[in-house]
Write a structure and sequence with these properties.
Blueprint (H helix, E strand, L loop, with lengths): L1 E11 L1 H18 L6 E7 L3 H10 L4 E13 L4 E8 L9 E9 L3 H11 L5 E9 L12 E5 L5 E2 L15 E12 L1
Parallel strand pairs: 2-3, 2-5, 5-6, 6-7
Antiparallel strand pairs: 1-9, 3-4, 8-9
Bound molecules: inosinic acid.
Catalytic activity: GMP + diphosphate = guanine + 5-phospho-alpha-D-ribose 1-diphosphate; IMP + diphosphate = hypoxanthine + 5-phospho-alpha-D-ribose 1-diphosphate
Enzyme class: transferase
Keywords: Cytoplasm, Glycosyltransferase, Magnesium, Metal-binding, Nucleotide-binding, Purine salvage, Transferase
Length: 184
Amino acid sequence: MPQRTYVIDEMISAKSIAARIEALAREIREEFRDTDKLVVVGLLRGSFVFIADLVRELDLPVEVDFLEASSYDNAMESSREVRILKDLRGQIEGRDVLVVEDIVDTGFTLDHVLHLLGSRHPKKLKTIALLDKPSRREAPVRADWIGFEIPDEFVVGYGIDFAQRNRNLPYIGKVRFTGEDVPA
Ligand code: IMP
């Protein structure tokens, strides 16, 4: 399979991300100030860097859990289906829960996850997304906290991949295809 060549242009610097996380963490600490335990749920795999930085700014009793969902087009029903590939290890009934997502794009993934977790009767269920692409939204969902609103661009870095690559960039970059194909 030929691979498209691309370059990555920095869009959000590591410094801006860190400053934004500090500000968001202050608001989250305030929202959950009385919690006996906050279950922070990272959606794999894209949120792994974000959740690591976020929890270190939360001066609260936290427990970390992960959930992996995959979404794909269902041509038969012209809709998107979301499948849970890895469920939480712990129970969330009666618990304070914060779902951490890397990007909300169409919103189908977050919408599905929120319905699923909501059906388990947490005490409070809130969401944070590092990035939001509101112009792409199809499902009626919005995170309670958003790091940055971005235009309809394909981005990588800070945990977010393009075909499993570039997750280890310390910043968020925009993928710009250079047009030439090279053998994989
Ligand atoms: P949604 O269900 O369309 O909101 O999809 C959300 C998921 O799609 C994110 O958690 C990402 O894994 C992936 N995604 C959406 N936009 C991008 C992007 O620009 N770069 C890489 N992955 C993306």
